[in-house]
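Deliverable D5.2: sample structural annotation.
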Amino acid sequence: MDFKDYYAILGVPPDADEQTIKKAYRKLARQYHPDVNPGDKQVEERFKEINEAYEALSDPERRRKYDHLREQYQHWQQRGGGEFDWSPWQTAPGQTVYTYTTVSPEDLEDLFGSESPFSDFFGTIFGQPRAAPPRGPQRGRDIELPVEISLDEAFHGTTRSFQVGTRRIETKIPIGARTGTRVRLAGQGRPGIAGGPPGDLYLLITVLPHPQFERDGDDLTTTVPVDCFTAIAGGEARVPTLDGSVLLKIPPRTQADQVFRLRGKGMPRLERPTERGDLFVRVKLVLPEALSDAEVETVRSLARERSARKKG
């Protein structure tokens, strides 16, 4: 029988408090949940390990027993190993332990069938896992699924399809969604227990970086090239936006990195999509393409005149 380091599985130190352990479990459970990684057997095994580790460490009595075993096991390893004596730590044959404090038995059966999600190590040390007796109708567990969308999809709105168990769900991602937006699909989570209502499905939105725009809330920032002649004498520059390009008036004597504000050309507001943030345009000075010899000589002459004026 192999020893399992539950602290290492959750990525927490042995002296971690209850909240730290719970936070680590929730983060890993979201990442490795089979609903997020359908058909990936390695992810399923990782999820089982994470669930088992939390079952062991979230119960104070089980954690105390495990900590004593872990300490003795480490001392045994330091002495050179050999044959570890498991007998002081084994439970009586047939002894059961109530589990499923994190995932209901119905959920585990839906995920893994009749196969036990607990290792021989857990059963030997704590007893054969058994579901806690029902406490009447209980609401089903909520499900969280990470969803990545592009900035253009956040601007226009989009749809996504998901496989949740045996169900195929299609839903809209709202216009103006940001990284961190949670889209709630009521009643689309895990089924309730003993006639309880189903849980909800939450989509956790991440908006991917855009090659041309940086986002800050509902505002956008972009950089546009402006040739030095336009910057000196004034003119216009074409500015891209997420719904087409616009012309920006460049006043004379515009400096490099000067920022102009285009009101209402940013992202739609999530709660009020008819309203939009602003677009900030940063000027990047560039040389005009294909300068002729005559143009270069003209600039050189102007530079000499300017230098002469400064000296005078």
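Annotation notes: The first helix runs from residue 6 to 10. The chain has three domains: 6-131, 143-207, 214-311.
The annotation will be released with the project's public dataset once the embargo ends.
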